[in-house]
Design a protein that fits this description.
Number of helices: 11
Helix content: 40-55%
Bound molecules: zinc ion
Order of helices and strands: EHHHEHHHEEEHHHHH
Strand content: under 5%
Structural class: mainly alpha
Shape: elongated
Largest sheet: 3 strands, mixed
């Protein structure tokens, strides 16, 4: 989209186009001389501030007539300016966007994302509901075991946590109680698409993830492996929920000291204190039914 000088008004932001911009611009009409970004010896911050001012004061003709070099320098300064004060400049790819259009685009983007999330949830709702039901069953079974506390119950507990001491039993029982409560309050709206976004490296190797301090929403971000996981048993959808929910700081505040059945059993023997604070150990314990 070409710059339309008549569309510019006070407060609009203009983004300098990429260096690939046509070199055939007429740079003879003298607008260039009004382009000054700071003075020699300026710090990068001062230059960046000057760049903002130039963008706000520069006429569209001026922008169109910048030399390729000048445009490149300005672009670097704008990048710095964006870092310092990203409110002043809206980052976009080489085009001029009036504020009103920017707001419209933002609203459109939000509503588009909302629609995508709706479709994503609708597709997974039956599986997620089933996983929540299964998780509830395993947690209720563990609650029973932790109260009955016979020799078999203690042996199962020792297998995953390396101890059957009372403080350990109490700690895990509290986590079970808190998770049962969270399970009860969790709906499809707590689940979001974790397959891309800021943690993109999670895409292919991860079942799900949470932000442990997200104790307000308790959102669970589901990734590719979750869709492929079986409904019940080891590394199932239900177990994934238990693993992830244990990370929330108000549920178990667990870490990931070890992953997988073998490593978790080893951890129980080697370091019970870590096993008691390990997400996978808790998840495997919950799936380990009599
Ligand atoms: Zn984890």
């Amino acid at each position: 989209m070409a710059l339309d000088p008549d569309c510019l008004s006070q407060g609009d932001k203009v983004i300098i186009p990429n260096p690939g911009f046509s070199r055939n611009n007429n740079i003879k009409n003298g607008v260039l001389k009004c382009v000054q970004s700071g003075t020699p010896g300026d710090t990068i911050e001062q230059k960046a501030e000057a760049a903002v001012i130039i963008i706000e004061n520069l006429s569209p003709e001026g922008i169109r007539n910048l030399s390729t070099n000048r445009r490149k320098r300005l672009r670097d300064e704008i990048a710095a300016a964006q870092k310092i004060n990203n409110k002043k400049i809206s980052a976009t790819a080489g085009r001029y966007i009036p504020q009103e259009e920017m707001r419209k685009m933002h609203r459109a983007k939000l509503s588009y994302e909302k629609t995508l999330l709706k479709i994503w949830r609708a597709k997974r709702e039956p599986d997620i509901k089933n996983a929540l039901d299964e998780q509830k069953k395993t947690l209720e079974a563990k609650k029973q075991e932790l109260q009955r506390w016979d020799d078999t119950d203690k042996a199962t507990f020792r297998k995953w946590f390396g101890t059957d001491g009372e403080p350990a039993r109490k700690q895990i029982e509290e986590m079970v109680d808190k998770m049962l409560n969270l399970n009860k309050n969790t709906t499809i709206d707590n689940f979001v698409d974790g397959r891309d976004g800021f943690l993109s490296h999670h895409v292919s190797t991860t079942y799900a993830f949470v932000q442990p301090n997200d104790t307000f929403f308790h959102n669970v971000h589901l990734c590719h492996l979750f869709d492929k996981a079986p409904a019940t048993g080891t590394d199932s959808k239900a177990e994934t929920l238990t693993h992830e929910m244990s990370h929330f700081s108000d549920i178990g505040d667990t870490d990931d000291h070890a992953y997988g059945v073998r490593s978790c059993k080893r951890l129980a023997k080697k370091k019970p204190s870590d096993a008691l604070n390990n997400a996978d150990s808790f998840a495997y314990y919950c799936s380990d039914s009599r």
